[in-house]
From TrEMBL:
One of its GO terms (molecular function) is DNA-binding transcription factor activity. Keywords: DNA-binding, Transcription, Transcription regulation. This is DNA-binding transcriptional regulator, LysR family. One of its GO terms (cellular component) is protein-DNA complex. Residues 1-58 form the HTH lysR-type domain. It holds the Pfam family HTH_1. InterPro entries: LysR_HTH_N, LysR_subst-bd, WH-like_DNA-bd_sf, WH_DNA-bd_sf. Belongs to the LysR transcriptional regulatory family.
Length: 295
């Protein structure tokens, strides 16, 4: 049973004429008659009463007509869906992002993309940088937003693009000795207890090495009393006045009225966190290729 056979049958049923149906498809009456006979053989019963003028459907043909219209519609929809998926107009996209980055402009970017491609479903996953890298390389994620991505950039199968350089903020409490400053440098933080926001569970990541270098350039080694990938945990501890922390701006800018917390910009040539978007270059998901147009 073919799509054309169903269309020919519907045309004959609606026009009550083999001749008119043949003219509609620009084929001979003989050809359309043969196709209808072949369809009846497949169905196993007569669908059209050829002894009546104009020709009429048999009782079985009347029932089959409803089903034939439904089948044609479903088949044409399936073709459209497949074509849209192949062109990136329909599909799914899995995006991972580093902890805290939900407070950035990420939702605005995804909302804009969804507005342009409403038939692409974007699912989002919040993870540590370690897990993001693993899931991207393993193919479980189409694209990730992360920092501390130097190791991934060295992978020849990974494409990447710098998304933004995020300013760093010093999180402290109102009674702290530095609370009245308009901005701070790392040298101002000598002697402080640090609640360290780490890019990964590992203690020897590229991100760690970068920030430790900045402390060395400021002339001291930080006294790290607590280490976590979770900004929320760190901020609770800062508010409890157990230490201070340096966090990316996106972790703090929506917390201006947070209880017993203030945020002061950290100034310096390299005092930022670079967020990169990364993807596998061998990922042929059409939805990913549409999303990459944002960059």
């Amino acid at each position: 049973m073919t799509l054309n056979q169903l269309k020919y049958f519907i045309a004959v049923a609606q026009s009550h004429s083999f001749t008119k149906a043949a003219q509609q498809f620009y084929i001979s009456q003989t050809a359309i008659t043969q196709q209808i006979k072949a369809l009846e053989q497949i169905v196993g019963t007569t669908l059209i009463d050829r002894n009546k003028r104009p020709i009429l459907l048999t009782p079985a043909g009347s029932v089959f007509l409803t089903e034939a219209k439904s089948m044609v519609e479903q088949m044409e929809n399936a073709v459209t869906i497949a074509q849209n998926a192949a062109s990136g107009q329909r599909g799914t996209l899995k995006i991972g992002y580093t902890k805290g980055y939900e407070r950035s402009n990420l939702s605005n970017w995804i909302r804009g993309f969804h507005k342009d491609y409403p038939n692409i479903f974007v699912s989002c996953y919040r993870m540590t940088t370690d897990l993001l890298a693993s899931r991207l390389v393993g193919g479980q994620l189409d694209l990730i937003y992360t920092w501390d991505s130097t190791n991934l950039q060295q992978n020849t199968e990974i494409g990447y693009c710098a998304v933004e350089d995020v300013p760093l903020m010093v999180a402290l409490y109102p009674s702290h000795r530095l609370a009245g400053k308009k901005h701070l440098t790392r040298k101002d933080l000598i002697g402080e207890k640090f609640l360290y926001m780490s890019p990964s569970e590992s203690t020897n990541s590229y991100g760690d090495a970068h920030f430790m270098t900045l402390y060395e350039e400021a002339g001291f080694k930080p006294q790290i009393v607590f280490r976590s990938t979770n900004a929320e945990s760190i901020l609770i501890m800062v508010a409890s006045e157990q230490g201070i922390s340096i966090l990316p701006d996106y972790c703090t800018k929506k917390l201006s009225n947070a209880d017993n917390l203030i945020f002061i910009p950290l100034k310096g040539e390299h005092e930022y966190e670079r967020i990169d978007a990364l993807w596998r270059t061998d990922n042929h998901n059409p939805a990913l290729h549409q999303y990459l147009q944002l960059f």
